[in-house]
Amino acid sequence: MQQVCENYPMILKVTIDEKTFSLRVDHEMTQDAQDIFQKMDSDMDRGWQMSRTWVDCPNDLQRCQIAADKMLTAIQQERTATVGLMAAYIVDRMPGIQALDIDTSGDMTLTELVMS
């Protein structure tokens, strides 16, 4: 467990429309939210509308793109708790992620994840 904790706090760099900011994700946050993450995964297991395309079973990248789209909406609506939760989900589900470039054109499949 100590080895996992060495990677925290994790700083996720998020870019939206050429504006970049950093989100701090603590190990405790990812651990406390595991039930919520499992519910999110369960919902996505039933398939998801990703912009114009229906995806029967989203893969890890697609799940993170979905979470990033939820993060974008939360940022626009100033729901900081949801922003943090989506950042924690992405960090938890995509180990090694450093940055996220969220597409704002309406096509969540164009959101890019930058790995270390």
Write a compact overview of the structure shown.
This protein is an alpha+beta fold and 116 residues long. It has five helices and six strands, in the order αββααββααββ. Strands 2-1-5-6 form a four-stranded mixed sheet.
Describe the structure.
The chain is built from five helices and six strands, in the order αββααββααββ. It is globular. A hairpin with a 2-residue loop joins β3 (48-50) and β4 (53-55). It has helices at 2-5, 27-32, 34-45, 60-76, 80-93; strands at residues 10-16, 19-25, 48-50, 53-55, 97-102, 112-115. It has one domain. Strands 2-1-5-6 form a four-stranded mixed beta sheet. The chain is of the alpha+beta class. The mean pLDDT is 93. The longest helix has 17 residues, at 60-76. Helices cover 46% and strands 26% of the residues.
Annotate the secondary structure layout.
Elements: H1 2-5, E1 10-16, E2 19-25, H2 27-32, H3 34-45, E3 48-50, E4 53-55, H4 60-76, H5 80-93, E5 97-102, E6 112-115
Parallel strand pairs: 1-5
Antiparallel strand pairs: 1-2, 3-4, 5-6
Helix pairs in contact: 4-5
> How many separate helices?
5
Provide the domain count: 1
Mean pLDDT: 93
- Main pleated sheet: 4 strands, mixed
The rounded distance between the terminal residues' Cα atoms is 21 Å
Radius of gyration: 14 Å
Q: Outline the low-pLDDT stretches.
A: none
What strand order characterises the main sheet? 2-1-5-6
The percent range for helix content is 40-55%
Number of strands: 6
Quote the beta fraction. Answer: 25-35%
Shape: globular
Question: Which terms summarize this structure?
Answer:
116 residues; alpha+beta; 4-stranded mixed sheet
